[in-house]
Amino acid sequence: MARNRKEQDLDLAPSRREKKTLGQYVLALLLLLFTLFCALPVLLVFISAFTDEKYIVQNGFTFFPKELSMTGFSTVMRYGAQLGQSYLVTIFITVFGTFLGLLVMSMYAYSISRPDFMLSKFLSIFLLIPMLFNGGMLSGYIIFTKYYGLKDSLWLLILPLCVSTMNVIILRTYIVNSIPSELMEAAMIDGAGDYRTFFQITLPLLKPSLAAVGFMMATAYWNDWQNAMLYIMSDSKKPLQLLLINIQKSIEFLLNNSNVPASVRAAMGGTIPQYSATMATVIVVIGPIMVAYPFFQKYFIKGLTVGSVKG
Amino acid sequence: MKAFLRNTWKHRAHVVMALPVFLILFFIMYVPMAGLVMAFKNYDMTKGIWGSPWNGLDNFKFLIASKATFVQITRNTILYYLLFTAVGTFLNVVLAIAIDQLIFKRMGKTMQTLMIIPVFISYAAVQFIVYAFISSDTGILNKTFQMGTRFYSTANLWPWILLVVKVWKDTGYGSVLYMSVLSGIDSSLYEAADIDGANKWQSIWHITLPSLIPMVTVMLLLSVGNIMHSDTGLFYQVPRNNGVLYEYTQVIDSYVLNAILKTSNFGFTAATSFFQSVVGLLLMLLSNFLVKKIEPENALF
Predict the structure, then answer these.
(1) Which position has the higher pLDDT, A218 or B62?
(2) Which of A35, A178, B59, B272 is geometrically suited to a Cys-Cys bond with B267, CB 3.0 to 4.6 A?
(3) A34 and A86 share one domain
(4) Interface check B6 vs A, CB under 8 A
């Protein structure tokens, strides 16, 4: 902890030339404008979710609503059971996939970075090729569903995002550059086996890199809609993103389909979960990532150094 | 050979540790590569990829026959790649330098935190945010400026919309990598430049920018292999897969996704995928070769 504090002070130390010139204020202003450009749309989601539905229908989306309401969230709660189920599915694939990926990728990164391991050359090339060449979506789709028989299986939400060449390279770079190899050698001399050296020496020291890579992986799992859309059929396996897409589809259907009797529409009145409710759903879907993000941010710069693939 | 076997046996633990990734890559990445042969087959769903009869170059003839679609999706893919890469790299570098130069460090950190947020929002959610801004009845732009523009049926506005969305989503995070390089520059270089009487712009031009070049090269090289692939969510979700907008929004990946979901045009799609993979590979090899000629240090492999 003490060490962290010190590093932070270092980061915040007065910069090289600390004159508060006019230029600095202009720069700060420009950066502030860009920050607003990035942050305001996210803020709009939160405001709209609490804006009264009828108010949006009449006045459009706005940053300054006159009437607030919670109807958006109460509409979302109508998806109750399905929403809970989708949350479970998303949490499961995110947690399981991220930990599985980090474990197998760091083992691979460690193995190919061992000096005098002759097979590591081949393993590095084997790792690199998928970055240069891939079979594409269609061929993958047919092979996963027809030959592996994995249609509607959660494995197809987990495995395709589990291993990425880029992440293995990031981990490998960290092992080579930031973990002194003497530590591993010393452990070996003290009689630790290969596995023990990895799990007790290397893995704990790899933490900053694991945190950065892990958070990016978790985000990718959490946000994945494409694999779900391609492979998942049953409601019980639908992750949140697919639920979000389905909700939008059903709204469009209700709004555009003339076969829906007018009486039904009238009965639903303002409760077709349109504006405030979709925004409330968006919050429900992106919320956990937003909450987790600040805790991982400090690892981004430290843990994400990419080295070259050569080695 | 004997030495190799002995070495492998000695490292058997490392072989075991490498095995899970090896298997995942093999089944998830390598087997579908073999599946690309379906570009040369008359795909029959009941017979599978390997059982379907060969049909030579028929699929590619079909591809040339329906040239309009093929040209359109390929053109969109490549032009958007070029646009996003040029604008993206430029903005990432500018933003990284700007935050690095700012002397209000605490403020810079807070702003950076906020700028990174959009990268964590899935495109399935982003499309609702975009809708809030540009829908014709309730969108902020139309309400505030009384423009009355029907964005969702005006195709030629979409390159701008997609560019703005892309910049909004990726710039903050994209600059993080460059910031990590900047924080590693030896500050004595700047001090020396100061003493020699260099002004701020000169030290940026002569010290900061050159130190970023290796990272820019690596990132560009890595992205070249993806020239035929796009951010599918951006092109599928954000325009709501709207057929009216295809002329400007459909890229190869979103076309393939649609084909799979509708189980249609597998021959055409297979030929396009084959083309996509091969072109990606060739461009990657070519650019790495060129970088190796000019600056061997920065080449990937």
Answers:
(1) A218
(2) B59
(3) no
(4) no
Spatial separation of the C-alpha atoms in residues B140 and B61, rounded to whole Å: 47
Residue A149: give its domain's CATH number: 1.10.3720.10
Q: Write down the pTM of the prediction.
A: 0.88
A292 has a pLDDT exceeding 60: yes
- Using CB atoms, pick whichever of B111, B125, B133 lies closest to residue A31: B111
Residue-wise pLDDT tens digits, A131-169:
888 898 999 999 999 999 999 999 999 999 999 998 999
Contact (CB<8Å) A41/B28? no
Q: Is the ipTM of this complex over 0.90?
A: no
Q: Cβ separation of B120 and A293 shorter than 8 Å?
A: yes
| Chain A residues with CB-CB distance to B215 below 8 A | 306
Q: Give the span between the Cα atoms of A45 and A282, in whole angstroms.
A: 8
Pair (A149, A12) in one structural domain: no
Determine the structural domain holding residue A108 and report its residue range.
81-308
B66-298 has CATH 3.40.309.10 classification: no
Domain-located, residue A74:
no
Buried b or exposed e, range A239-276, using 16+ CB within 10 angstroms: bbbbbbbbbbeebeeeeeeeeeeeeeeeeeebebbbbb
Does residue B133 belong to the interface with chain A, where contact is any CB pair within 8 Å? yes
Residues A18 and A127 in one domain: no
> How far, in Å, CA of A9 to CA of B164, rounded?
36
Inter-chain touch A140–B200, beta carbons under 8 Å: no
Looking at the partner chain, which of B4, B106, B194 has a beta carbon nearest the beta carbon of A118?
A: B4
Q: Spell out a b/e string for A38-61, using b for 16 or more CB atoms within 10 Å of the CB, else e.
A: bbebbebbebbbbbbbebbeebbb
Segment A209-224, tens digit of pLDDT? 898 899 889 999 999 9
**Pair A97, A32 in one domain:** no
From chain B, the residues in CB contact with A15 under 8 A are 101, 103, 105
Number of domains in chain A: 2
Identify whether A239 is part of a domain. yes
Residue A123 has pLDDT above 80, yes or no: yes
pLDDT at residue A226 is higher than 90: yes
Mean pLDDT of chain B: 90
Would you say residue A12 has pLDDT above 50? no
Q: A279–B128: do the CB atoms touch at under 8 Å? A: yes
Whether A38 and B191 lie within 8 Å, measured CB to CB: no
**B86 has a pLDDT exceeding 90:** yes
- Would you say residue A7 lies in a domain? yes
Q: Do A166 and B222 touch (CB under 8 A)?
A: yes
Closest B-chain CA to A102:
B21
A180 with A114, same domain: the answer is yes
- DSSP code of A144? I
Are residues A139 and A207 part of one domain? Answer: yes
* A228, A302: one domain: yes
The answer as to whether A121 is a domain residue is yes
What residues in B contact A248, CB-CB < 8 Å? 127-128
Residues belonging to chain A = 311
Partner A, chain B 50-79, Cβ-Cβ below 8 Å: none
Q: Cα(B55)–Cα(B296) distance, rounded to whole angstroms? A: 43
Query: Taking Cα atoms as reference points, which of A297, A238, A254 lies closest to residue A83?
Result: A238
Chain A residue with Cα closest to B229: A136
Same-domain check for residues A14 and A129:
no
CB contact under 8 A, B103 and A17: yes
Tokens of B81: 């790649």
